From TrEMBL:
SUPFAM superfamilies: Homeodomain-like, Tetracyclin repressor-like, C-terminal domain. It comes from the Bacteria. InterPro entries: Homeodomain-like_sf, HTH_TetR, Tet_transcr_reg_TetR-rel_C_sf. The lineage of its organism: Bacteria, Bacillati, Actinomycetota, Actinomycetes, Micrococcales. Residues 39-58 bind DNA. Keywords: DNA-binding, Transcription, Transcription regulation. Residues 16-76 form the HTH tetR-type domain. This is TetR/AcrR family transcriptional regulator.
């Protein structure tokens, strides 16, 4: 009996490992080639698979790209989560600034995010639930950090943390669209100026 179950378990583990390899390679391909240059064929070639072989690990092309965004989120959390490990002034500012700086280095992934976020407004789109959950999680994280951040006490006296989180998310998403049209825009600097101005204005009005 043990011999019969060993093979499926091994195959399952290999499948998970291959799926992770595909997603990691896809991140690199899209960052290098851009969204339009990162076809399923190009991604498949990067991991030594045919297009049909690659899609064996995903339900569809759309699901592949959703999972690429999930992988990007996981990498970003692992890379930048240290910015929010201690309460204080850096919790929101530093984390957002670092992520925006990084996004400016991977335009293909920003293009993918922007395109799918629009398509995902259709409730039937495979990315719909991903974007709803991602947005909700981001806002909850920002709202919690804002509520505990003494430098934003003045802001949160006038804006509840949930509203502040929605505004910051809207600014970040809007800046990325502007940046795709005008690559000279310094997204990180604008976010830094905004948060600094809000903290200063809030402290004066508190």
């Amino acid at each position: 009996m043990a011999e019969r179950t060993a093979a499926p378990r091994g195959s399952y583990a290999k499948g998970i490992a291959k799926r992770e390899e595909i997603l990691q390679s896809a991140l690199e391909v899209i960052a290098r080639e851009g969204y339009r240059g990162a076809s399923v064929k190009v991604i498949a070639d990067s991991v030594g698979l045919s297009q049909a072989g690659l899609l064996h690990y995903f339900d569809s092309k759309e699901e592949l790209f959703v999972e690429i965004l999930r992988k990007r989120d996981a990498v970003d959390v692992a890379t930048y989560s240290h910015e929010a490990t201690d309460s204080g002034a850096g919790d929101i500012r530093d984390g957002f600034i670092e992520v925006m700086k990084h996004n400016a280095e991977v335009p293909g992934l920003v293009q993918l995010y922007a395109r799918l976020s629009v398509e995902a407004t259709d409730p039937s789109h495979p990315a719909h639930d991903y974007f709803l959950a991602r947005s909700r999680g981001l806002r909850e994280g920002v709202a919690d950090a804002a509520a505990d951040n003494p430098t934003l006490d003045g802001v949160t006296q006038h804006l509840d943390p949930e509203t502040f989180a929605r505004i910051l998310q809207a600014v970040a998403d809007g800046l990325q669209l502007q940046w795709l049209l005008e690559p000279d825009i310094d997204m990180a600097d604008i976010i830094e100026q905004l948060l600094g101005a809000l903290a200063s204005a809030g402290s004066k009005n508190s």
